[in-house]
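Reviewers of the previous submission asked for a worked example of the structure-prediction workflow described in the proposal, so we include one complete record here. The input consisted solely of the amino acid sequence. No template or homolog information was supplied to the procedure at any stage.
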Amino acid sequence: MTSDPPPPVGQPPVGQPPLARSTLDRAAHRRTDQRWLAEAWRRARVLVVDVAGGGRALVEDSGPGTELILLGPDAARDSAPEARLFLGVEPDGVPVFAIDAPLPQIAGTRPANLREIGHLLAARDAGLLTTALALANWHARHLYSSQTGLATVVGDGGWSRRDEAGNPLWPRTDPAMIVLVHDGVSGPDGRCLLGNNATWRSTHGVRRYSCLAGYVEPGESAEDAVVREVTEEVGLVPGHIRYVASQAWPFPGSLMLGFSALGDPARALRLDPVEIAHADWFSRRDITAVLDGEVVQVGDGLRLALPPPSSIALFLIRRWLDGIR
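From that input alone, the workflow returned the following structure tokens.
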């Protein structure tokens, strides 16, 4: 598994992954207080996300950046109480809810996906949209109980579901590891190992490469998953594995655990063609050139493209580029 390949490279925030930022108090103790939730809805800000429409929300491009559009409860008055997903309380004391519904048409706004804009949002909006999308995706995939097959309904302000027999379901996040393997060499000649997923098509004359990644299997530690996935995908056994950072990747519901590791470029790569179509070592000079808009050839007349700016993959690459291991 590697992170999805969409839009061009941008400038993510320094110091932490783009989707690991938030200013929201989740106020979990309020989720079972139906009276408080009903009162909170009447003064809430409401974020509409359209899961069926690609997980998009409305944004406005104005001033220095991109901002989420949050509505008043009157704009979502037709929503059933059980469809209101309580996200938390903002620093100014105003509660925030999300609903999964078609986006309204509002002049001066546009629909956008978290992949496209996550790195452009302020911490407040990045946290809201990431949480709303992760929660809405979970609800959309759990309309029936996997235990009983019975239909389920929403509870706890959107943080649980129950089937007709009263059996509870809780939101689940799938842990996945993602690792930047590098050679440990400092300066412009230091190299990192990136792969092109076998399911990614080369379009517009580019071939996209990213960090190696994969789901953590049952009974496995994240560090063991790093070793297994890298060995399986490219035939290289990594060492000196270090945890770096994590961020949610709600497409539909993963938590990406970011690592760095050392590898030996002198060892031949042995690719698993089901997972990886291409893999190669790229120098800091190569990566810097791509980020500066220059062309780096990767064969077959194609040029190198890097992961999308909202991904933790690009965060790991930039961190390595700055000499942080």
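DSSP finds six helices and 18 strands in the chain. We consider this example representative of the routine output the project will generate in years two and three.
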